[in-house]
Amino acid sequence: MMDATDAVLIEKALGGDEQAFAELVRRYQGAVCGVVRRLLGASPDWEDAVQETFLRAFSALGKFDPRYPFGPWVLRIATNYCIDQLRKRKNMKTRLWSELGELEQERLLRDFSGEDARDSTGARDVDGYAEIAQTLVNGLNPKYKAAFVLREVEEREYGEVAKILGTSEVTARVRVSRARSELQKKFNAWRAGRGERGR
Fold it and tell me: What is the Cα–Cα distance from 62 to 39, expressed in whole angstroms?
């Protein structure tokens, strides 16, 4: 069920009270920012995406079903917007796994396997490493990436992931599983290649 104060604010916003909607934005801006930044990465567009999310929420407020919580509803708007933006990026040049150097692949895959990531000098390369990890996740299908980020990065329960994505819990689980599987395949391919090179 929706928070009673959210229900009051929505009712007032629908009646034309701009301050009521501003309070809803204040309450949920942090959560929306978190999802948007994790899905779009270090994109200069993330602030615009947050603003667009709330503009769309305001426009669709009359269609909101008050029997359900407002938070997952506004996060679904944010996620859908980000998925659309990720699809539009397809025509932009992205680095494929095969284009990464051996050292980059090694660092990235150690991160996913939980091993300590150190370069040849023994120093931790946190910034470059995080960028490579983001490259791999960015290569996922946008729907799988959204599910993966919500579950694995934001650590949300599958039920909440499903609500945000507007899918069943089974579909949310399948998308996360496929994202993991794709990442694991890349990891296994690298390990097999590394073993052959080492002989």
Answer: 27
Q: Are residues 53 and 119 in the same domain?
A: no
User: If pLDDT is split at 50, 70 and 90, which confidence band does 103 have?
Assistant: low
Q: For residues 78 and 56, is the Cβ–Cβ distance under 8 A?
A: no
Number of H helices, E strands in the chain: 9, 0
Domain boundary among 94, 110, 132: 94
Q: What is the pTM of this model?
A: 0.64
Q: Are residues 37 and 72 in the same domain?
A: yes
Number of Cβ within a 10 Å radius of residue 38: 19
Residue 67, SS3?
coil
Q: How does pLDDT run across 8-29, given as a tens digit for each residue? A: 999 999 998 889 999 999 999 9
Task: Specify the length of the chain in residues.
Answer: 199
Helix (H) / strand (E) containing 77: helix 70-88
First to last CA, the chain: 60
Q: How many CB atoms lie within 10 A of CB 198?
A: 6
Check whether residue 100 and residue 167 sit in a common domain: yes
